[in-house]
Design a protein that fits this description.
This protein has 1 helix and 7 strands; from the N terminus they run αβββββββ. The protein has about 130 residues and is of the alpha+beta class. It has one domain. The protein is rod-shaped.
Length: about 130
């Protein structure tokens, strides 16, 4: 190719490039959405496992009147979404609590994958 010459594509080449890009998009988009869904599931499971471990840790460390007790509450958060000013599970998570992707209504917490969990302070369950 000579200096200053322009690179030219014909219509067939441009159509083939568009077809290849479309095929890649058709394959990649579902994979991306599956990864996002799996990440939400894994995130929720991790938080639930950590909360349960935190409840048991609290139970192992706290004795009142000679009896081991479960935490009276998982947090002092208000109903609504988790945020920096309304973090969840602060009483049982050492990291300070969850600040996103969760919501709370009365005593029920809803995770990013729409799982609903309720804490029972009598037996320490979180399900």
């Amino acid at each position: 190719m000579q200096p200053g010459a322009q690179l030219k594509f014909n219509l067939t080449e441009l159509v083939m490039i568009i077809v290849v890009l479309c095929i890649l998009a058709v394959v990649a988009v579902p994979i991306y959405y599956n990864l996002c869904a799996q990440a939400r599931i894994d995130s929720e499971r991790t938080v639930v496992g950590n909360v349960r471990a935190g409840i048991q840790s609290y139970h192992a460390r706290h004795v009142e009147g000679g009896v081991r007790v479960y935490p009276p509450a998982l947090d002092d958060a208000k109903d609504g979404p988790a945020s920096l000013t309304n973090s969840f599970f602060g009483a049982v998570l050492a990291e300070g609590g969850v600040i996103s992707d969760w919501s709370k209504k009365e005593k029920t917490y809803t995770g990013p994958n729409r799982g609903a969990y309720t804490y029972n302070r009598t037996d320490g369950t979180f399900r």
